[in-house]
Amino acid sequence: MKGLSKFQNMDFEGFAKGKQFMSVSVKPWKNYETGEILGTKLESVIVKDKTDYGLSKDGEKISNLFEKITFKVAAEIDVPLNVEIIPINPVAKVYGEYRNQLSVTADDIQVVGK
Fold it and tell me: Model-level pTM?
């Protein structure tokens, strides 16, 4: 993902402002080492992004439109595909060598509609 370095403290509410997320995949969230199911991983895509990230080093406008975000919920939930969703009480962390990866957990997912 691009422009995450502007969100070092990762205020996900601020990051999500002006964005719409659409569900594209639902699968179990498993512990990598034990295989234990921890909850649900809901993959989404950003279908609307009005955030101003500024310009890249080469002068192009930065956007995360159509970038994917996975929300992890510590419960088994069933969310239809291709619907607008809103994460409830999201907590996000920016990580990675280039500070361009995002990990988001949420208490639940609200389905808004198509």
Answer: 0.85
